[in-house]
Amino acid sequence: MQAVQAKDYQVVFGNSGYNTLNNILKEKKHSILFILVDSNTHEYCLSHFLQNLETDQTIEIIEIDPGEEYKNLETCTGVWNVLSELNADRKSLLINLGGGVVTDLGGFVACCFKRGIDFINIPTTLLAMVDASVGGKTGVDLGSLKNQIGVISNPDLVLVDPHFLGTLPMEELRSGYAEMLKHGLIHSQSYWDAVKDADFSKFEDLGELIRQSVEIKNEVVLKDPYEKDLRKSLNYGHTLGHAIESLFMEDSSKNRLLHGEAIAVGMILANYLSREITDFDNTLCDEVSKAILDFYQPVSFTEQDIEDIIKLLKYDKKNSHGTVYFVLLSKIGSPVLNQKVSNELIFNAFDYYKNLSKK
């Protein structure tokens, strides 16, 4: 597959991507190669990756615990300490082999260690391939609040290898699929039509859809790298979705929601809000929402849950001067930025989601 050219680096794919990676390692001659993994990617992904790596340089493996709950400064401190103990210097390279937690956290670790060392991302989950692979966002959570601490800094390379999709349970594929659905909604009817009918049993077919998803996000980021305007469109469904994810993360009585599962709910809520505020077609709103819901288990919300979710909205990164701003749609492929939404409409959106889930 053809590489996608981001601002200062490439997103490369499959076997040819390993050739690009190995050429970079030869050219740069890093002092030590560090590979950051979690326990899952250590077990299921590292061997395949090392088999495709061509280098005589020293390789050190650093393992962290898996899961969003470990995407925090405490984990960063642990990695920084290990880097220091293993004599990492400013010519070292950190290769982040994992999902969005590993690539986000690993990128942040690299940006801060000795004021910045090179890093390369090898996303192993569908979510990381189509979302974390582009845009240079690195960082960690602050308690249950998503991505509150971080910087924008680009890697030297991103390598997307669809082989790793075979290591994932279906719920992880669903989590990444939500971001691909989002790209369809904000980009074009044609990509929405293609991705909503994707066959997850055929990874070779999924590879091209992944590349298109990366291209869509890259187009947006190139035009607006620091999220001043157009890049906000990538947050469609995320304003409420992130708040839902945070609520389910901090409430031990609730079953944990993966990122994409929460964003799927957030997109259905955003569809309803778009219908009410930006004239998104009523029939299309129902069609799109049902297509999303068909792929995800319905989630139940109490009135107290909704009130708590609304309170969490104040932490959304798109907010300005105390006002919560939403990304909505006027039609598929036409996002509308900086929309204000009343609490009453948010409650109505949850009613819409609840009623849709019963059909």
Short description:
This protein has 359 residues and is an alpha/beta fold. Helix content is 49%, strand content 17%. Its cofactor is Zn(2+); Co(2+); NAD(+).
Distance between the termini: 41 Å
Looking at CATH, the homologous superfamily of the largest domain is Dehydroquinate synthase-like - alpha domain
**Percent of residues in beta strands?**
15-25%
Average pLDDT level: 93
What is the number of beta strands?
Answer: 11
Major sheet: 7 strands, mixed
Q: What's the quaternary structure here?
A: single chain
What does this structure look like?
With 359 residues, this protein is of the alpha/beta class. The protein has two domains: 4-167, Rossmann fold, CATH 3.40.50; 170-358, Dehydroquinate synthase-like, alpha domain (Up-down Bundle), CATH 1.20.1090. The protein contains 14 helices and eleven strands. The strands form three sheets. A seven-stranded mixed sheet has the order 1-2-9-6-5-3-4, sandwiched between helices. Strands 7-8 form a two-stranded antiparallel ribbon. α6 (126-132) packs parallel to α7 (170-187). The longest helix is centred in the middle third of the chain and has 21 residues, at 203-223. It starts with a strand and ends with a helix. GO terms for molecular function: 3-dehydroquinate synthase activity; metal ion binding; nucleotide binding. Residues 62-174 form the 3-dehydroquinate synthase N-terminal domain. Catalyzes the conversion of 3-deoxy-D-arabino-heptulosonate 7-phosphate (DAHP) to dehydroquinate (DHQ). It holds the Pfam family DHQS_C.
